[in-house]
TrEMBL record:
Keywords: Signal. This is Periplasmic heavy metal sensor. It holds the Pfam family LTXXQ. InterPro entries: LTXXQ. Residues 1-21 form the signal peptide. One of its GO terms (cellular component) is periplasmic space.
Length: 181
């Protein structure tokens, strides 16, 4: 029997996105499901049970979906938000061009990686749907899903790192203030 080790950060990444889709609370604080129904009721008809349509669309469109929060909230601006704030943080024309280039590169990489996350989740779902799940097949599928999710997250974080080199300390401070940090 093979043993598969999963890096804790990848495991957390793989379960954090599906978990978000599974918790529904009304604005009054009560859970959406009644006492007779699971909070998962209705999700059984999803093509990929662990991913909502919104999550699939986000993965396909290269959205960050809070994957770069450690960078963003610790003073490492992201390309999209830098472009949104370009006039207010006084980007030069060269900085705007570089940021657009970085954003475009990030989007291309993130979209491709997002498709891999979707496919890995589809394969995991398929194991259960076709009653082929075993401890070993699930371990392999979960490891793959976690790995693909980790790669996608790394892409988003890497582009936050690249933005640090493109901005002045004053622009970063202005960005953080405008973003409310």
């Amino acid at each position: 029997m093979k043993t598969f080790l999963i890096h804790p950060a990848l495991l957390i990444a793989s379960v954090s996105m599906p978990a978000v889709a599974q918790h529904h609370v009304h604005s009054d604080g009560h859970h959406a499901a009644s006492a007779e129904h699971s909070p998962y009721a209705g999700m059984q008809s999803r093509p990929i049970k662990a991913l909502s349509e919104q999550q699939i669309n986000g993965l396909r469109s290269g959205k960050g979906m809070a994957m770069a929060m450690p960078a963003e909230l610790n003073g490492y601006p992201g390309p999209l938000h830098v472009l949104e704030l370009a006039p207010k943080i006084k980007l030069s024309d060269d900085q705007v061009a570089l940021t657009k280039k970085l954003y475009s590169e990030m989007q291309a990489e993130a979209k491709a990686a997002g498709e891999k996350v979707i496919e890995a989740e589809r394969e995991l779902d398929s194991l259960f749907a076709h009653k082929k799940a075993s401890a070993e097949t699930v371990a392999v599928a979960v490891s793959r899903a976690a790995n693909e999710q980790g790669k996608l997250r790394e892409i988003h974080l890497r582009y936050h790192l690249r933005m640090i080199d493109a901005l002045t300390p004053e622009q970063i401070a202005s960005y953080n203030k405008l973003r409310g940090y």
